[in-house]
Write a structure and sequence with these properties.
This protein has about 375 residues and is an alpha/beta fold. The protein is built from twelve helices and 16 strands.
Length: about 375
């Protein structure tokens, strides 16, 4: 019996209830999508950059007109607090405006010092497959799709299974903006289907944002097919506070950098490193500021920390916290898993975190701060 799932299922993390399900595409459907992407690319790449920029301007207007519905969709599918979801949609609209204004000039031919007959020309390469994550279901897609499309390429989106509604909403928005059919397409495929697409000659390059495991697998498949790949993977980024810092400003930035989007950000402030003279003062202010964050219903505009996106990731996070405490870290704020049907994890602050501890050596993807 095949282990391939029949549906991509979205679970509302605030309630634990199924939000929607979308059938996984067959090999025949994937083949048809890739044919459509190639056809869309041929139409789209023939259009001048100025015409493609006009589509991006219209897309910005569509996003702003639908901001309430789009934000609510992201909140329902992955738990992003509604105020932050609205900000994500507006950021996407601003991205479209910026590239529409400045992007076409970036595609102009450039002369070189070699001679008058030598120049650099920027040309589209075809259909780009993008495997994208759930944590910024609109931004993670459009931050790559907008310049890729402006360059005359087609964009094939394989989104995370729990935010497929957001994927189809973006496809609809681009269609409303006047993008030719197939130029932006959604591929609701299994892992085997993604592998098939990577190996297919109709895909010119691959981009992925996700885990190290996913990046390694996809990059190896792209390499075997002699295709370029771009990877944006996880990390455990440092947030360093020196003795001469503005402590109030540093605390505010650290709270945002660690707990925005429920702590589910690849480039979040995951290790807060403090110089000794200000360590105690910073810690006291930081703990007080985190305690004041409102945890709860992500549809409430005052909520700052909503539910985590997936139940399995909450369990993994709880295990990382316990392993860090077992390894010698101190709990300054003991939040953790919240009882109930929602997927809530109240903020945790660990201190005394050092190399060799899980919270230092691994990526901690959720509302946990390590000092």
């Amino acid at each position: 019996m095949s282990s391939t799932p029949a549906f991509a299922v979205s679970i509302n993390p605030a309630t634990g209830e199924e939000f929607a399900r979308y059938p996984i595409e067959s090999q025949t459907q994937i083949d048809a999508s890739l044919n459509l992407a190639v056809a869309g690319y041929r139409t789209w790449s023939a259009m001048p950059a100025s015409g493609r920029a006009d589509v991006l301007r219209r897309l910005a207007k569509v996003l702003r007109a639908d901001i309430d519905a789009l934000a609510a969709l992201a909140t329902s599918e992955m738990g992003k607090p509604i105020a932050q979801a609205r900000a994500e949609v507006e950021k996407c609209a601003g991205l479209c405006d910026w590239y529409a204004e400045h992007g076409p000039a970036m595609l102009n031919d450039e002369s070189t010092a070699i001679g008058k007959d030598a120049y650099v020309s920027y040309l589209p390469i075809g259909a780009v497959l993008a495997v994208m994550p759930w944590n910024f279901p609109f931004w993670q897609v459009l931050r790559g799709a907008v310049p890729i499309l402006l360059g005359g390429n087609a964009y094939v989106l394989k989104h995370a299974p729990n935010v497929m509604g957001c994927a189809y909403a973006l496809q609809s928005a681009l269609k409303q903006a006047g993008l030719p059919d197939g130029t932006f397409s959604v591929l609701n495929a299994s892992n085997d289907g993604v592998s098939m697409a990577i190996a297919d000659r109709r895909i010119a390059a691959v981009a992925v944002t996700g885990s190290v495991r996913a990046g390694s697998a996809i990059a190896s498949q792209a390499g075997a097919a002699l295709k370029k790949s771009v990877l944006e993977l996880g990390g455990a980024d440092p947030f360093i506070v020196l003795a001469d810092a503005d402590l109030d400003g540093a605390v505010k930035a650290a709270v945002t950098g660690r707990f925005q989007n429920n702590g589910q950000i690849c480039i979040a402030a995951k290790r807060i490193i403090l110089e000794k003279p200000i360590a105690q003062a910073f810690t006291e202010r930081f703990v007080a500021a985190v305690k004041a964050l409102k945890v709860g219903d992500p549809m409430d505009a005052d909520t700052y920390v909503g539910p985590m996106a997936r139940f399995d990731l909450r369990d993994e996070l709880a295990g990382q916290v316990q392993a860090s405490v077992d390894g010698g870290a101190t709990l300054l704020l003991d939040g953790g898993k919240v009882d109930g049907k929602g997927n809530y994890f109240a903020p945790v602050i660990l201190s005394g975190v050092r190399p060799g501890m899980v919270a230092f050596d691994q990526e901690v993807f959720g509302p946990v701060a390590s000092l």
